[in-house]
Design brief:
alpha/beta, Aspartate Aminotransferase, domain 1, Aspartate Aminotransferase, domain 2, seven-stranded mixed beta sheet, four-stranded mixed beta sheet, 15 strands, binds pyridoxal-5'-phosphate
Length: 469
């Protein structure tokens, strides 16, 4: 029996956490128990060091425990740990709302070439990403009077009961389907890579796509289109350039609002502050979370002020609120995180490092041409989809690679409906050398898994680095 089986943390979780949450596979050395993390490095309870190519679900964009963000959080904790969300506010909530307006709608509508006049944004804060999604869906309902929502197959908007109506994957919806209102209508997400989905290249043409939207909205009750500009958990799927402009036009023509879920893609991940900037499309509402704070549960739905004013004025009992709304520590950290993203110019850094990530993923594809169905990269968001010799999605290889890479000191996550895609979303502070080193370990891991060789009992680990507490 492996000693890992007796890990006290995993044992406690096995006994006292819902059994659906943490997968424990001692024979694969899964999972590791995190002790501390700084920058791109994570250390586990056993003192082993790892390079994190996930930024912990995309959160640690400015590096794990970015010192400026930690300082801001600490300072705020000692000053004011909690305020009264929708009753007695605190100053940082107001400052962050202004900053989010500036970095989104004010930047987007003041740039040269924008057709309308300058606009500001208004915010509803939440804790998790799905809450930002639900705030956006409610806003669209109030603003348009229409309950229907168009969403995309493969999209992920979180698993709250409201958000589940727009998250299509049966894995998340099926057990609760009879409790959902089912106001979501789903359309195929077009991909740049014609091999990646069932149909041929012609199927992705804008005209055919618009027809699909029209069909899905035939009842005439669609008040919102919600979409990730690039799908992250759906398997790092990047749509063709016409996709968002098409959606914008369709929404305008059909009296619907365009909600962009930038919870994963926001704050520099794709090489721009927000992924919609690659196409110049301005949404009506944008959902933000994850990298917003770098590690505190705070999310935000930001909307054009005139759209957000569909909410009635406050009368003393807000109709959408929560105990921790606009938490002071989260706001302090978010303001510091935005400062770090700017100071370190991280969106531009992600754009620059795209070439390195692309070269590494393409080299992997060339090394294993029969086992790779597609490579997708934008900024520091990349994915490689694995296929079996019969062409089907190779979940086994993708998951096996993840296990082997972990043994070799690299943290990865699988994405996609079948977990067949290895996602690469490191902190935007990662160096070129770290990225290249991680890919050497990834390549070796694929070789080992494909050769079916038994991994060595004591795998060679990345050289441990001291991570100061
Ligand atoms: C695009 C997108 N939207 C929403 C969510 C849900 O966020 P949370 O897990 O914080 O509720 C996620 C989480 O991965 C996401 O990637």
């Amino acid at each position: 029996m492996s000693t890992r089986r007796k890990d006290p943390t995993l044992e406690l979780l096995r006994r006292h956490e819902s059994r659906n949450i943490t997968l424990v596979q001692p024979e694969e050395g899964w999972p590791i128990v995190w002790k501390r993390a700084r920058g791109c490095r994570v250390q586990d309870e056993a003192g082993r060091s790892y390079l994190d190519l996930t930024a912990a679900f995309g959160v640690a964009a400015a590096g794990h425990a970015n010192p400026a963000v930690v300082r801001a959080g600490r300072r705020q904790m000692s000053e004011l740990l909690h305020a009264m969300g929708d009753v007695h506010p605190h100053a940082l909530k107001a400052r962050l709302a202004r900053e989010l307006s500036r970095v989104t709608f004010e930047r987007w509508t003041r740039r040269k070439g924008f057709a309308g006049g300058p606009e500001t944004g208004k915010v509803i804060f939440g804790c998790s990403g799905f809450e930002a999604v639900e705030a956006a869906l409610k806003t669209a309902r109030l603003a348009t009077g229409k309950p229907g929502v168009l969403a995309f197959r493969g999209g992920y908007h979180g698993v709250g009961y409201g958000a589940l109506n727009a998250t299509e994957r049966g894995h998340f919806r099926d057990p609760f389907r009879d409790q959902l209102r089912e106001f979501g209508r789903f359309v195929d997400f077009p991909m740049t890579d014609p091999q990646a989905r069932s149909g041929g290249p012609g199927e992705d043409a804008p005209g055919v796509f618009i027809e699909a939207l029209d069909r899905a909205a035939a009842k005439g009750d669609v008040g919102a289109v919600i979409v990730e500009p690039m799908q992250a958990r759906g398997g790092i799927r990047i749509p063709p350039p016409w996709f968002l402009p098409c959606l914008r036009q369709w929404a305008d023509r059909n009296g619907a609002l365009l909600i962009l879920d930038e919870i994963y893609t926001g704050f520099g991940r794709t090489g721009a502050w927000f992924a919609c900037e690659h196409s110049g499309v301005v949404p009506d509402l944008v959902c933000l979370g994850k990298a917003l704070t770098g590690g505190f549960p705070l999310s935000a739905c930001v909307g054009r002020a005139r759209v957000m004013d569909a909410w009635p004025p406050a009368m003393g009992e807000a109709i959408h609120t929560s105990t921790y709304l606009g938490h002071p520590v989260g706001c302090a950290m978010a303001l510091a995180q935005l400062g770090e993203l700017r100071r370190l110019n991280l969106p531009a850094r992600a754009a620059r490092l795209q070439a390195v990530l692309e070269a590494e993923l393409t080299a992997l594809q060339r090394r294993f041409p029969d086992r790779v169905s597609r490579v997708s990269v934008i900024g520091l968001m990349g994915g490689i989809a694995w296929k079996r010799p019969d062409g089907g999605p190779d979940t086994g290889l993708s998951v096996g690679l993840m296990h082997e890479a972990l043994r070799r000191g690299v943290i990865l996550l699988p994405e996609g409906e079948h977990s067949e895609v290895t996602g690469i979303t490191p902190p935007l502070t990662i160096t070129e050398a770290q990225l290249r080193r991680a890919f050497r370990e990834i390549t070796r891991s694929v070789e080992i898994r494909l050769a079916g060789t038994k991994p060595p009992a004591k795998p060679r680990h990345l050289r441990p680095r001291k991570i100061r507490p």
